[in-house]
Request: fold
Amino acid sequence: MSAVKREHFDIVIAGGGMVGVSLALQLGEVLPPATSILLVEGFPLPAQGNGGAPQYHPAFDARSTALSYSSRLIYERMQVWDDLCQWLCAIESIHVSSRGRFGSTLLRASDHQWPALGYVVENAWLGNSLIRQLRQRGRVEVRSPAKVVSAAPTGAGVSLQLQGDTAGITAGLLLVADGAASGLREQLGVAVSEKPYQQHALVANIAFAEPHRGCAFERFTDDGPLAVLPLLASRDGEQRGALVWTLPAASAGRLRECPPEEFLATLQQRFGYRLGRMLQVGERHEYPLSLVQSTEQVRHGIVVMGNAAHALHPVAGQGFNLALRDVAELGQVLAQGLAEGMPLGDLALLQRYQRRQQSDQQRTIAFSDRVPALFMHADPLLGLGRDLALAGLDFLPGLKREFVRHAAGVATGSGSANG
Ligand SMILES: Cc1cc2nc3c(=O)[nH]c(=O)nc-3n(C[C@H](O)[C@H](O)[C@H](O)COP(=O)(O)OP(=O)(O)OC[C@H]3O[C@@H](n4cnc5c(N)ncnc54)[C@H](O)[C@@H]3O)c2cc1C
Reply:
């Protein structure tokens, strides 16, 4: 009796979160049509043409994401930006302040002759738009719900097992994009370094009495940093902002569960009346925070991507933007490799990708790690330093410019974002 023949794909992407779906779109765009690509996602992805409210998906949940200018350029090149635009709220300014202290600064897009400092999108709508475009293009095969349950290197690439599929598949290149708690990374024996921040992010949408006029607020309190990102007004004209509040675990748990009126009163006291009275809070979600970094990102036939490679503190809004720059660079390197006649899983080719992204990754991770630490200190002298640092942003245009360039993901040499 002959053995069941395994299916073969040139590339398999394991994980269809924001990074996996963006990878699928990017590779479908830059690689020749003959390159076969499969995307495998454990949860059901929305069906094609779903124009209504987005279906629930854990990777595209109630959070919102601040997309940087570099992400805009990448999505424009992928030709998904035009569709995405309808769900975006432009950040025209960022107000940075510290509760109970005098320092504050206003960063304005117009001061840098930029159209915006960034764009806020609700993850559910980002997912809906990207998946719809992926399905419409039909370039990448999508299996969902389907789970990659095992992965093992072979001489030519990787051999994979999908749940409930006895035959299994082989891939010339496996892209591991299954999130911060990546099961595949662990199974492949790739170690991680983890630095817990002892903080949780509390996330919710808030309705305000006054319009935000495209202003994002970054406010540092004794409990931890608090960001309110501008969202598009709801269909019935409700003025909304996306709250990301970083807190000690116990406070986050209490505030997630307390009655809405008590939550709003506490938040109003911390945030103040910059957007008038807070009228309503949506569903509250809580995320434990740590810096998780994979100690290896490439092996023969394997690349670890997105949160599986590096999950960052959200306060600087850099995690997904960095992952998207990785996605763009990997696409370029694989296309070059194919043009040079190299196999897609060739270690030297994958190392080329890693070399090109290394400094962007190191700089962005260090920046994301430094910002919350700088503003978490209880030491009054450090507090004074913090005020000076905030005030300094206004006094030192060079420093302020550097901060804005980081926030926009276009700091010097950040790979393909500039290209
Ligand atoms: C509160 C908060 C706010 C944030 N705000 C910002 C921001 O403003 N800007 C920014 O740039 N970044 C932000 N981030 C970071 C951003 O959310 C992450 O970078 C991004 O979600 C990473 O996506 P991912 O696809 O790598 O992982 P995930 O979203 O975890 O997706 C992994 C996917 O893999 C699937 N999966 C898992 N195992 C398997 C398997 N075995 N087989 C198949 N599928 C599998 C899962 O179902 C899931 O869909 C924020 C993060 C947090 C926590």
